[in-house]
Amino acid sequence: MLLVMSQKLNLVLGGCLTCILLSAVLAAQGANQRTRPYVEALAADALEGRLTGTTGAHQAADYIIEQLRSIGAESLPGQQDYRLPFEFTAGVSDGGSSLVITNGAPWQTAEIVQGLSFSDSAVVQGEVVFAGYGLVVPEAQEFSYDSYATLNVEGKIVLILRYFPEDVEQAVRGILARYSGLRYKAMAARQRGATAVVVVTGPRSPNAGQTVPMTFDTAISGSGIVAASVNGAVADAIFEHVPNQTLDSIQAELDTGNPHIAGFGIDGLELTLDVTVTRETLTGNNVVGYLPPSSSRVAPEAKPYVMYGAHYDHLGYGMQGNSLARQNEHGAIHNGADDNASGVAAVLAAGAWLVEQELGRGIILAFWSGEELGLL
Questions:
Q1: Who's near 98: CB < 8 A, 6+ residues apart?
Q2: What is the pTM (predicted TM-score) of this model?
Q3: Backbone angles phi, psi at 53, to 5 degrees
Q4: CATH pick for 2-90+280-373 out of 3.40.630.10, 3.40.50.2000, 1.20.1730.10, 3.10.580.10
Q5: What is the mean pLDDT of residues 111-117?
């Protein structure tokens, strides 16, 4: 990736010029001869696939820094180190969440009540408002939808369905799907003053009646709201307080996609929701080197930087769910020679060539971690 940057690293230009410039640089110096040692070192079994936050990734960062030093690259102006550390969520678990319906016995176990991975940990008590699918599609879209249009959820616990309406035309499905993520739904409820969100997988949906698996996103921050999922038995117990309707009949009506079907408060019902989510936080490192412009050509502050960049992390043992390994290769080291040791090698080789040239601009050599976790 090639970027032209201002002194404050504001993006000015990015594009496929990278391929042209890197190809020219590498062709001029014999690409295979210069890049192969880098690829072999980074894709070695000893680095165990370079998963962000692991020992292998830290060793990869050490290796890249060693190469930067060997070609004479400096740390970024204003920085004392080549490493730019960041924190991320590496794992999440439910610490024993529970829900009580109006002075009843608590529902506990993960098969019945489970915190969502982005939930705050807290105890919340309050009245309940059912908000359908909990969808908010901005009016700027060709199809708008607002589950909260007629509702006041200030200080309330919001009960919503997972996913989005099923029986709608394909174009509408595509729009609704973009706004159906549970973190997005939880944020929409929070913005309207809700204190908590309870998610149920409806009887007409895939995985009907099951709690939401506690997969994690890698954002270090929570969502600012308590959020949990409950199974079908809990949902049925809640809907015993709704006269003349069942969750099945309500979902059938909602699945027509009519955005004007109103939610409702559930009279006489109060929930106590206790969610405990434990997050494992690790540290990753971006690595950045700097080649100053030639003093005979230009003052350092006079022109934007040019940046060459590549991510250096990979999948470790491929246990994060995005491995392309064959079935008999699951759990094996994912060496990542082409994703992206080769890209790192190209940037290092380009840097080694550029340091010998008369540079009219400062050059940044950037190596990102966290790409495979979706952090870029």
A1: 106, 107, 108, 113, 273, 274
A2: 0.72
A3: 90, -10
A4: 3.40.630.10
A5: 93
